Protein: Thymidylate synthase
Amino acid sequence: MNNADKVYLEMCQTILDKGIFKEDRTGVGTYSLFGYQLRFNLAEGFPLLTTKRVPFKLIASELLWFLKGDTNLRYLLAHNNHIWDEWGFQKWVTSKDYKGPDMTDFGIRITQDEAFNKIYEEQMKFYQEQVLTNDTFAKTYGDLGNVYGKQWRHWEGSNGKVYDQIKWVINEIKHNPNSRRLLVNAWDVASVYEGLMQLPPCHFCFQFYVVDGKLSCLFNMRSNDVFLGLPFNIASYALLTHLIAHECGLEVGDLVYTGADVHLYANHLEQIKEQLSRTPRKLPTLKLNPAIQSVFDFNLEDMEIIGYDPHPVIKAPVAV
Structure:
């Protein structure tokens, strides 16, 4: 059994066995634990889970979106990436400009009412088309506010000065690798408190560590949808570590995940039980285009996953 699937599945089983049921913001409810850590040796393979198919291109295009400093859904939609659609859609259907059918609690209702689900899909399709083609609409309802891309690349201080945290940390890794300050923070207090983000950052901080010519990364999550979200988060930070190690002339070391409120949504239990019944397979490897030197110059075609042979995808609703 590969270690990535092993430690992930052990975590899921622990939540099933010991998780406490809690009501939550979404109205779905979760089985939750507080405090959990996982470690992945990136030299053993790229940690793209094999007990269900995890779509690497969606993970890669989202990470590139972050690294561009972008916060508008247009880039993601242009790359057929829909993992953030529900949050932009929510912004639109709760606005004074929305005149369509009632979309209250759409995240729950689409799983319970087939007729409503059809109406929702029609409204979502219209929303996506408007973001892609209507500049005014996209600027207002396609932008998610001060989310990850803004914080990573355009952190604004109280003095009005803008800081590029990704460029800074790469420069520090190159020139001051023993620093204990190789850290990027997405938890902007003002943006969170003033509601300037459509979704406050779940993975709110990450830190790098260099030893023996290897780059390791630890990322922290305040809240984690373990079934749908965590497989994406693991692969995304693994990819980020590979990209920065590549630019800095380092090998990859460990990826460490630290989760605070780690939870399985109440409507994901059957899905996780299905995943737990599967036998893990060999991890794939990541190949990066050696001609690309800068993290900021990579495109999707410059990254390739080799030898990925997962079990089929397991679908589950997103709690918004």
